[in-house]
Q: What sequence folds into this?
């Protein structure tokens, strides 16, 4: 280990926790008591409490050969905030549990935490607790986010109705293309010292993969416009997979139009360069963290006015099934290829 | 893999989640919406919300060569409930995240879940969400517990005052001795098929290690007696370590008496058999999940009447430090040897 780095065993678990949390301040009035006890203490007398949790494992969800620790921390927090926004809520607190293997120094964990803290600062969220332990294998990150929403404004997956408009924020497929690009450069760099990866003209793809944002802005814009979606999810596993969830849980079908799916030109160029089908990437690539939601037909004009939201199709009766209408008018059934984090991986143990 | 077992890849992530959660029912009115969406939705209009989280990793916190999966599930849930009780709260919900390596079949995970569900049933807690993913290494279990407490009755670590009585529930050191016993039998069985471990006369130790309980009963008894402790923790890292936390955070000292520390006779016999110091085991052995708390001096008679609670010492002014008074009257400073889950372990990757 580098001489300038501090081994965790030098300061122990409590020493590490002190270093990570001594500068924490809380900003939300719902946070009554933060780190330093058996539990965090919160207060939500007027709103519903939303809880979401994500488990991120090295070698499955992230590859530290190209993911900087600060970015990893930022993303780990943001993907949890995204789940809270996806129910029309506002994230207020997170707990962070880490499993840390021997190869990490105190400074590495501080770097990871700096990303988590930055995300908390930008999104107005308090870090209120967690657990820190050693890991015999890779890095383990488990984050639970707690948020709030007015009871009457909580949006679930099961409220879509026939004729509702299907909307999506931002653009799709870029994070997936960013992953392909990073994997390609990792492969190209194998064994070469001082290898300079080539990301020129593809910065957006890399950023979408390494430093995604949750769509707080869209939730705020919808609120300002007085629109409460009938159903909503965030796009973490791919548009197809999420649409199928909404339709299954709402007992509906849907039609989405290929030419309406928002795709950035960098995503399109990269798909061409890699000889991949662009629409497949946009439908099935994961980790976009955009919001997919449905609104009643009469909201068409209002929702269309909001920058960054695109109407991509509509909800149908269930017997029509779920399909994509291609540019030439062909109907193709939607399939959930998605991101399968349960796909078998090689065990290294 | 056994022919009768189902590989997780056969049914996929969503298939697995369906199998694990399709029979879930909720019992608490604070649970508005359970599994099946981006977030669980809860409601706590009248009480404070308590949140606690624990990360359990194979090879660090548990050894599947002698821990049955159902027991592991039960214990994983109960240790989180214990954190909620430790603040004088009542657990109401948990989320369960699992990282599952290839060697586990669907039936194994159902077995683990059956233990979690049993604990939820016994303690009246709803399983409301989680995350399931593949792991490249061992089993990863991350549980977050959510509970409630009346605002004025939340008990933290920092409220102990000079002359307060120090109380502990149950007995100490048994879980640690159970661990020593299980490790010894594992060592003895190495390479032998059909090895029969010898636990006769030591069943209590094994049970304390494999199937601990959280002291819901003590919290209820204290409530009935009208006693709100001035500080409280659960004994997960060892009595010494927890006492030092309370004294540090309350800015006090303490005296505890060796002859008052509750120890089961099986614990004592096992310590003798292993030639270990009994008091050291009781002070520093972890995972007892008993409650350590302080009450004002005037509660002495009331607290002493409650079965299963023992007064073991008192809080002092900070300049007196923290010490154990041995049977012969010697003062020995308390040290936090505790359970160090951050101790370096060999990385197997």
A:
């Amino acid at each position: 280990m580098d001489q300038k780095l501090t081994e965790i065993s030098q300061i122990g678990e409590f020493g590490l926790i002190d270093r990570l949390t001594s500068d924490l301040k809380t900003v939300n009035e719902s946070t009554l008591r933060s780190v330093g006890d058996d539990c965090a203490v919160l207060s939500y007398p007027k709103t519903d409490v939303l809880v979401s949790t994500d488990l991120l494992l090295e070698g499955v969800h992230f590859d530290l050969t190209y993911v900087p620790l600060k970015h990893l921390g930022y993303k780990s927090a943001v993907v949890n905030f995204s789940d809270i926004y996806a129910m029309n809520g506002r994230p207020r607190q997170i707990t962070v549990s880490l499993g840390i293997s021997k190869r990490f120094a105190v400074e590495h964990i501080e770097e990871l935490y700096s990303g988590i803290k930055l995300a908390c600062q930008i999104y107005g969220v308090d870090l209120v607790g967690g657990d820190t332990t050693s890991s015999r294998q890779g890095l383990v990150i488990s984050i639970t986010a707690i948020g709030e929403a007015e009871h009457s404004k909580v949006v679930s997956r099961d409220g879509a109705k026939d004729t509702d408009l299907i909307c999506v924020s931002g653009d799709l497929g870029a994070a997936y293309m960013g992953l392909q690009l990073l994997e390609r450069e990792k492969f190209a760099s194998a064994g070469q010292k001082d290898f300079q990866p080539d990301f020129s003209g593809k910065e957006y793809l890399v950023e979408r993969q390494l430093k995604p944002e949750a769509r707080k802005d869209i939730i705020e814009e919808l609120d300002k416009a007085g629109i409460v979606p009938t159903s909503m999810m965030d796009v973490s596993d791919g548009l197809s997979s999420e649409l199928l969830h909404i339709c299954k849980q709402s007992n509906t079908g849907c039609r989405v139009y290929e030419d309406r799916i928002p795709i950035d030109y960098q995503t399109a160029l990269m798909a061409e360069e890699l000889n991949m089908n662009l629409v497949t990437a946009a439908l099935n690539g994961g980790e976009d963290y955009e919001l997919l939601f449905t609104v009643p037909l009469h909201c068409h004009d209002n929702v269309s006015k909001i920058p960054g939201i695109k109407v991509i199709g509509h909800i149908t009766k269930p017997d029509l099934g779920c399909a994509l209408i291609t540019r030439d008018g062909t109907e193709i059934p939607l399939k959930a290829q998605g991101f399968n984090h349960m796909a078998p991986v090689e065990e290294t143990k």
Remarks:
- Chain A touches chain B through 81 residues (CB under 8 Å).
- The two ends of chain A are 23 Å apart (CA to CA).
- Chain A has a mean pLDDT of 89.
